[in-house]
Amino acid sequence: MDEKIVSMKNIVKEFSGVRVLDNVDFNIYKGKIMALVGENGAGKSTLMKILTGVYLKTSGDIYLEGKEVNFTTTKESQDMGVAIIHQELNLVQDLSISENIFLGREPVGKSGKIKWKQLYDESKQWLDKLGLNESPKELVKNLSVGKQQLIEIAKALSLNAKVIIMDEPTGALTISETEKLFEVVNELRSQGHSIVYISHRLNEIFQICDYVTVLRDGTLVGEKTIDELDEDKIIEMMVGRKLSEQYPRVNTILGHTVLEVKNLSNKFVKDISFELKEGEILGVAGLVGAGRTEMARSIYGVYPLDKGEILMKGKPVVIKSPKDAIKEGIAYVSEDRKSNGIVLGLNIVENVTLASLDQYVGKIGKINKSEEEKSTDSYVKSMSIKAAGTKQLLKFLSGGNQQKVALAKNLNTNPKILILDEPTRGVDVGAKKEIYELINKYKESGMSILMISSEIPEILGISDRVMVMHEGMVTGTLDIKNADQEKIMSLAVGKEVS
Amino acid sequence: MKKLSLKGRDWKSILSQNKPVIVLLILIVAMSIMNDRFLTWSNALTVLRQTSINAVIATGLTFAILIGGIDLSVGSVLAICGAVSAKMVASGMNIFLVILLTLMLGLGMGMVNGLFISKGRLQPFIATLGTMTLLRGFTLVYTQGKPISIFGSETSAVYSKIGTGYFLGIPIPVYIMLFVFVIAYYILRHMKIGRYTYALGSNEEATMYSGIKTDNVKIFVYGISGFLSALAGIIVTSRLGSAQPTAGSGYELDAIAAVVIGGTSMAGGIGTIFGTAIGALIIGILNNALNLLQVSSYYQGVAKGIVILIAVLLDRKQRTSR
Ligand SMILES: Nc1ncnc2c1ncn2[C@@H]1O[C@H](COP(=O)(O)OP(=O)(O)OP(=O)(O)O)[C@@H](O)[C@H]1O
Ligand SMILES: [Mg+2]
């Protein structure tokens, strides 16, 4: 048996009377990687926030290297060598990369002046290690979500902690970024660091982890070594039953062309043209930075167009704002839910109806709250959104459940065209399948779906066609029958495919 | 055992969610012990009447602060609207027309603030600091630095009833205040625009992505603030019988204090009209208490500052507790 560096015993956590962790035991082994898995809302992030002093436990004991500890702030846990990379980004957008990495512990000289050179040099080392070639002086707000995630990782690594907790670090990363991260993680392990790795991507767990702990609904299901398990066994432990086919494909007869995009150009994308038919799912693949999100947002009226035309059912439409887009029947589920997908300070009902409030108001603008409640309830049921109730604020939902609410908000505008930007990011295996089934249901009812995803299996799994982008341009479109991972990857790096 | 502890927690959580109410109750109890003139019907009415002006302004300001903004121009809008309405009354204009025009003037000025902030992309603090200074100067020019009497026509007497009159033994401004509270509560809780106000204050980008014209929401919100400042201007002018060129200066501070004591977050997105009502009452009672206790005006500021800080600190502690 390996040596325990952290052991959490009988941890209970209640939020205003609701128990979200019930007598959970959790161990971290020295120089090993412990995977922590479970469905959305199982309590993974909460458990790790308790360990790092973000939340206070209701009861239970925590031991670090055999000594009982009780962190009440993140600072305390950091000082004792425990660092966490949170699921949600916590960067200061208007500061530079290196200012973010060293925020609150900038190297200073005797006079209190920041040693900028040291700051930049040390940041650069971490950026190099993670394969980022951005300047340390670059402002964080100019980075993609994926790169911001890497900055969070650099920040935690630079603390040189004994125990490093990674809460879904790869959610926004590309394949090559993920591989780079794994190299770093392996190196950390061989140097004796202990790591907790939370992810919904089970293949990653088999790639790097030594142990697996499974939580379900706030209780411990079990702790196993990786050799005792395979993917199906983990899933069974997570959801309590076996799951059939992960990608449920439905073949519908495609209808008329609904959306035509012609020669769309602006400062992000060049000469984008494609068509979308009724009942069709068009997958959009590409590396992070290929301009997929920018293309989607340009169609959605967030970014102005320099050139090009958008036609709905053959008629040109003018879309200058998301309001126009929604009116034309286009909805967009953002890849970055925290900054523009949902409103954390509003509750589930208020979020679900935010983009479609006009459906619920009478002449003087009074909201019909019971109607709102009814619509929300139906989404909560059909998507199995886990929450204490529909009046729970979004900031208290787990990441995956927030994502479901973001999707519900957009579906509730009754779109003809649904643009999904990384729709299953941070969503657990069971819920992923539920989301695919939901997408399929809307597809069968004639909705057209543009699905941007960095998960190629997902794209291959449910799309009818695949469009691949590279550096702001479409490099090719493949019919699903002759699409495969290899062809997509070569198009994604800008190579021709026969 | 379990049941008992649960009950204890509920009792605690009810208290902790209403810290401003507790401060208010403590203030009332303490004052009734210290001064026997405090807890009388007539003093209660005085407090309410004095509170009404600040309460009306603070209600408008609650909207601005809820969207993460601020409106410093409330006092100046009050002054210029009061002056214009005094002149109109004195000239014998129809009383309803006077009120309507004055309120529209305030609304318009507020919407101009909103335009600067939304379309002009100015920081709310800067934009309203500008209009505050500008409108104060404008008031001085308009009044030539002298009070404008409301008297001199047959409608003057009616106009002066707004601030000095009673109905069923209760001052009319108190009714106005209650009416404003109810309407504002209704807007924030039940109307589309109220929902958008919270959404905008909590996450502007996500609100825009949801197809909401955030500029229009801002213009509306600052419009309300201007509108209610004008209403406060009418009450003040009517009560004094004249429009003072310096009327309302510094009023923004008491109003901001009321909003913040009431639990509204300066960062936007969190807050209620109920809270603001309590906050305004706390400020009102404090002012009244300090006068009753004959505290010198130098010390009044000190005492008020301390109470404001305590109230806000209590609220902060509650919010960051985990
Ligand atoms: N601050 C809070 N207040 C109230 N409830 C909370 C709070 N934080 C989390 N919860 C609830 O606790 C439960 C566990 O949430 P947690 O974020 O730990 O889940 P998770 O396992 O990390 O899920 P995901 O995979 O979706 O990130 C959820 O039901 C969530 O709604
Ligand atoms: Mg989580």
Question: Explain this structure to me?
Answer:
The complex is a heterodimer of chains A (498) and B (322). Chain A is 32% helix and 25% strand. Chain A has 498 residues and is α/β, with parallel strands linked by helices. Chain A folds into two domains: 4-239, 3-Layer(aba) Sandwich (Rossmann fold), CATH 3.40.50; 257-492, 3-Layer(aba) Sandwich (Rossmann fold). Chain A has a six-stranded mixed β-sheet, with helices on both faces. In chain A, strands 16-17-18-13-19-20 form a six-stranded mixed β-sheet, with helices on both faces. In chain A, strand 1 and strand 2 (18-29) form a beta hairpin. The mean pLDDT of chain A is 91. By secondary structure, chain B is mostly helical. Chain B has one domain: ABC transporter involved in vitamin B12 uptake, BtuC (Orthogonal Bundle). In chain B, a hairpin with a 2-residue loop joins strand 2 (166-167) and strand 3. Classes of the chains: A alpha/beta (498), B mainly alpha (322). Bound molecules: adenosine-5'-triphosphate (ATP) and magnesium ion.
CATH architecture label of chain B: Orthogonal Bundle
What is the total domain count of chain B?
Answer: 1
CATH A-level architecture of the largest domain in chain A: 3-Layer(aba) Sandwich
* CATH top-level class of the largest domain in chain A: Alpha Beta
Number of domains of chain A: 2
Helices of chain A, by number, come to 17
Beta-sheet strand percentage of chain B?
under 5%
Average residue pLDDT of chain A: 91
Average pLDDT confidence of chain B is 91
* The CATH H-level homologous superfamily of the largest domain in chain A: P-loop containing nucleotide triphosphate hydrolases
Number of helices of chain B: 14
Strand order of the largest sheet of chain B: 1-4
User: Low-confidence parts of chain B lasting 5 or more residues at pLDDT below 50?
Assistant: 1-8
Helix content of chain A: 25-40%
- Widest sheet of chain A: strand order? 6-7-8-3-9-10
Please name the CATH topology of chain B: ABC transporter involved in vitamin B12 uptake, BtuC
Encode the helix/strand succession of chain B as letters.
HHHHHHEHEEHHHHEHHH
**What would the principal axes of the Cα set say about the shape of chain A?**
globular
Overall morphology of chain B: globular
Largest β sheet strand count, sense and barrel closure of chain A: 6 strands, mixed
